Amino acid sequence: MTMHFPWGTTDVVDLPTVGTPVDTLTDLSAVPGGPGARLAAARLQAEAFRRELPTTGVPDSVTTCELVTLPYPTRFGLFRASRAIAPFLSITNRMLVIRWHDTDGRPRVLLFEPSDVELGKYTPYFDKLARRTPDVVARRMVTEHGTVLGHLARLGIAPHDVDYLVFDHLHTQDLRRWVGTTRFQADLGERPEPAFPNAKVVVQRDELAAMAELHPLQKPWYQPAAYRHVPAEAFLPIDGSVVLGPGVAVVKTPGHVFGNQSLVLNTSTGIWVSSENVIAAECLTPEHSRLPGLAAWSREWGQEVVLNANTVETTADQYNSIILEKTLADRSQADPRFPQFFPSSELTGAWTNPGTKPTFSHGAITHQA
């Protein structure tokens, strides 16, 4: 298998595949008919995979680590539904640490959303926002809770024991310190050695391809220059959905970006799904939301979910992907009105953002086999 990497190199590199393909989750774009037909197919496929995933087992453990709480436009996070007066809401980005053993007994460690918060600040949208925000205001709106490496040290996980780095998409992500570079990096003052020397980035091939020539709608959210000298061998591009380990799957959920993907976990409380397709569990069941406007908007427009819509690359596909996620997830044991959907960036109440306090928050996924 070969691939031309899109960020400035013309090398053609043989890249291995990873995981077991999920035959029950097919490419919805191949379904005859329009987006409505694809929506119906998404429900049926999700129901089938929901029965299939538990047969693969459960991972050894799932641990949640908070990274940063930051402002995010309300009109993006709650799309057209919110009637909150606050122009910004707060979201908390968290990393999930998943551990399991392969059938041959080999231990595995997967990091989901291991964001380098320091370098992520230079994403064009957030960089421009920071330049316009006085320092005294920024200090009240941004809280850094911990670092990726700090959390791993606390958990007793050595960086060389990490096997997989997975993101729902590569918005805001700068991976140079995680996987190294092939050249000197002027902005870092060094050619960084990889913090995770044995880790591979599992990413949809569609997203890598889309980064070859970003559309104007995409440009505010990517840092393409940060990938120009990342070694191609650091990536494991996949096409579609795969099972990586017992109860651990990466499922293709296009829409928010072309190559969006979700983490799906079978745990002691049932199936969880995590991505940034929505920013709160109640966005999957807005009829139960107390956020101003969500329930009424859902009824008025017949919308079953409320999208996280900072990008509108393929909005109908994103809606269909969220329905797939909603169908896969079990209901919360804490409050069955809400699914076990864990936003990778979860809506967080703050006194500075009136009208945006979530009705319900998961806060963490905790699992121990």
Automatic annotation (TrEMBL):
List every stretch annotated Disordered.
Answer: 345-369
* Cofactor(s) demanded: Zn(2+)
Q: Any idea which UniProt keywords this protein has?
A: Hydrolase, Metal-binding, Zinc
Where composition is biased (Polar residues), the residues are 345-359
- Domain of life according to the entry: Bacteria
Which family does this protein fall into?
Answer: Belongs to the metallo-beta-lactamase superfamily.
User: Mind telling me which PANTHER family this protein's record contains?
Assistant: METALLO-HYDROLASE RV2300C-RELATED (PTHR42978:SF7), QUORUM-QUENCHING LACTONASE YTNP-RELATED-RELATED (PTHR42978)
Tell me what this protein is called: 4-pyridoxolactonase
Species per Swiss-Prot/TrEMBL record? Allokutzneria oryzae
